[in-house]
Amino acid sequence: MSKFNNLIFVKFVNFSLVVLRICFGDGIFRNRPE
Q: Where are the transmembrane segments (predicted)?
């Protein structure tokens, strides 16, 4: 179950990064088309 929990944690972190990207107006990640 530890591997499964780690996968959920990684997905949660990635989701948080996406939310931060949207909140900050995509200014830091301007190198991507979207």
A: 6-24
